[in-house]
Design goal:
single chain; 449 residues; alpha+beta; Arc Repressor Mutant, subunit A; 3 domains; ten-stranded mixed sheet; 17 strands; elongated
Length: 449
Amino acid sequence: MKIGLEVHVYLATRCKLFCRCRADFLASPRPNARICPICSGQPGAKPLAPNAAAFESGVRLARALGMDLRPRARVMRKHYFYPDSPANYQRTGEPVATGGSLAGVPLTELHVEEDPGAYDAEAGLVDYDRAGAPLVELVTEPAIRDPAHARRFLQELRLVLGYLGVHRDAAGLKADCNASLAGGARVEVKNVHGARNVERALEAEIARQRGVIASGGAVLRETRGFDDATGRTVALREKETEADYRHLPDPDVAPVDLAALARRLAPEEAPLARRARLAALAGVDEAAASVLVEERALADAFERAAALAPPALAFGFVARDVRAEIEYRKTPLTEALVSPEDVALLVEALGAARITPQVATRLLRQGFDRGGLAGALAEEAGRSGPAEGALAAAAREAMAANPKAVADWRAGKATAVNFLVGQAMRRLAGRADANALRAAVEAALRESD
């Protein structure tokens, strides 16, 4: 079995690759609302200089994957005739970088190119809002072991992209999946979206090829699609060769000086190298530490918190509480009203027992809601906790309001005390020390027995 991927990643630039039209085609108010003579292929329209931000993103991604950068890249015309390609060719850059590896898979090359438009063959309609949007194409060697390995590769790539912040996350990843078995030709399954569907498409295609070979047939070189509703691949056309595309240098676009771009970019720690370092600091394995590199700000929050409090405490709070707020609100930490510095101050106060875990969670939510976390933390930490009498009173109130839990405890159900502690903590607005409150609840239960 041989498997290789060609992964396409939409870059989060403001403009398209060769014009000033907005690149965020997903936010277009209607079809063909974000086009101009350049990206719609009008006769005589000339491309602008390549979008430097797109090539900078390609250079940063290549560095993060340990690839070897090339000094320059020409822009080529890749010729094909289809309604989604208004000029009858697609502009695609020569490789930005070669080599490197990810998830144990050697990489072949990475290049930047423009996307074609969207063609609805059944309706006969074409939308060019996407035409010219910048993409990175990452090509692997045919060294992926099995469909599950392909899925893991894409999951690791998503981590790297999320940390760097260079991709248009809402557009997802799409991959052309190449698969072959001994005795058969290579088949490409085109435009498969998402890591799970890539795994499913490869499983289906390999099973199909095995069936063809087992029945005495020959696996043909072709391009197929994946129907995620049926879980089957379907024939589209014969597979093109490189010669069919007639790649030629674009005479209207100067080569991109990659070496100059690279010199302007500050060096940065590779995301997966940082994951390994932070995992060792937190005392967890790299799989658990992956949550920290989903977004650079999360890694920053943990590292700053770990400098002020025990790293295990910092990891638990960032990986559990902070990430839960981000997931719930669907807002990255970089866009939230809470900063990595705010998170570090919360963890420091928690580690010094100036606030309880319940208060830390409440203040974090309050900070996400309306900001001002540092001031609220200072005010909360300046208060003294409830007096011993208040703890006992809250315990008695919780018992009076929940006689069934008291009866369960008397019947030997030890976990009932956890419920009563939670009810008492609510009465104290989460400001009590959990261990002291548990002792007060247990004492009140013994007195009532």
